[in-house]
Amino acid sequence: MAKKLGKRMRQKQVRKNKWYEFQDKSFKYIALAATGIGVLVLCVLLYDVFFDGFGRLDWKFFLDSSSRKAKNAGIYAAMGGTLWIMALTTIIAFPIGIGAGIYLEEYNKKGRLSNILEVNISNLAGIPSIIYGLLGLEVFSRTLMLGDTAITGALTLALLILPIIIVSTREALKTVPYNLREASFALGASQWQTIWHQILPASIPGIVTGAILAISRAIGETAPLIVIGAATYITSVPKLPNESFTVLPIQIFYWIGKPQHDFQVNAAAAIIVLLGITFVMNGAAVYLRYRWQKKVKW
Amino acid sequence: MKRSEKVIESFLFACSLLTVLTTVGIISVLVFETARFFQVVPIWDFLTDTEWSPSFSKDQQHFGIMPLLAGTFLTTFIAMSVAVPLGITIAVYLSEYASPRVRNIVKPILEILASIPTIVYGYFALAFVTPMIQELFPGLGLNNFNALAPGIIMGIMILPLVSSLSEDALHAVPRMLREGSYAMGATKFQTAFKVIIPAALSGIAVSIILALSRAVGETMIVAIAAGNKPTLTFNPLNQVQTATTYIVQTVNGDVANDSIEYKTIYAVGMSLFVITLLLNNISFWLKKRYQQVYK
Q1: Spatial distance between the Cα atoms of A265 and A253, rounded to a whole number of angstroms
Q2: At the fourth CATH level, which superfamily is domain B60-290?
Q3: Cα B225 from Cα B134, distance rounded (Å)
Q4: What is the pLDDT of residues A190-237, one digit of tens each?
Q5: A27: which chain B residues are within 8 Å (Cβ-Cβ)?
Q6: pLDDT exceeds 90 at position B124
């Protein structure tokens, strides 16, 4: 009797174990499918955009500007505006962002002030980009009377990407071992000499990687620039930063809003260009980081 | 200390102070314009009125934020229902099941999803996802502008955020706990769901809240594909207007500096700011309070 009971219990346990194994295996496949969904959506998105817009990409498309006729419209002015914004944002945001990163990491590491600054920067990074647009509209465009110009756009985007640059600069500086600083101080170097001659050269690839990613983010931003009033219909590239401008994402937004199918094709073609720029910049950043990580061994 | 050293240090200090200035700027701009708005519209009406129609003529104007928040809530809810289950499943898979080789391939691909400009997602939702759903389920009666398609795509957009932050959290759980569980005869599945996830719960919660905050503030996807009719509805098949969409659509026309519409965008912006600030700080608090320190 007791023997029989033990056998039944063992059988029950075997069945249970089989179920656990089944559970484990099936989750593995479900998870693989979930991962597949993410990858699949990416592929379908790229395919859809290329399918819609690739035929429209020719030289003329790059050399034409806004037009009432879809066939005559192109991205010349928008590309010019995007390059302006890219250059101006870089000039404004890089020195300030890297400077702030250096200050927080090298000069004022601990203390109440740096604590406040840190919390503040995390908060800034979480604010929706459209709110930065509202700030730019009121402060740069209306109060400082810069209007809907490229400089307003660049200032707004610079504030937007500042937290990203600061955080990545600090991460890069953190990877430089403390010995290096001590050795430099021991040789009589001042704080800034140490930073300029030792720390920065050792961490510059990491800093640049973060900065490229930040600029790439700025180029894809649409909402804040719409809010500051960037033009949707522009036929020439601004010659100076104090002229009206448009950028690729806004041109795309304008075309998507048009009912005619030909404008949708234009939008898809411009999206290919925008994605191209984004991927090239991200690829460059990833490559830089990879090479840096490989080369530097402390 | 040399004078130049001092000058450099103060310059660097000024750089970091600029971030504080940005915060002060944002808050004061929002508070100032919102206060001007509340001089015209009582705050009670703003919070409780169920209609939003600032562009109507004066006697028919309504300023109730509810329809906009309903639109935001609806698209965000759809996005979270896509991103949270998928993201956590992917995180568990990458952290507990996948070989390093698979992880090294899958992670960068998911990162690409995060780097795509949101306007591209908007185009995709409008030009591909909505027509596809309409074709697959003609009985649904899906509007050309709807909350469903942009919601789903927004979920895909925030998926990498959930999966990578959750994976970091799972990864931080020490090996000992896993080995202990395996030694008791548990399968990987049992270990993941009964040991590792509970241990990493605060990190996973942080990732979800940050994704939530991102979805609330997301603009272009909904501005393109969700429509612009502010209605107090929770039907994902109809068009909705989110808080962010309202701002975009209002500034897209020309708005005079002193008009009530100019003030509404700041009042709506203020609501967005308060919601995201709250969410972000909950996540900071969670991170600090519940971060397990393993030694």
Answers
A1: 12
A2: MetI-like (1.10.3720.10)
A3: 14
A4: 999 999 999 999 899 899 999 999 999 999 999 999 999 887 777 777
A5: 189
A6: yes
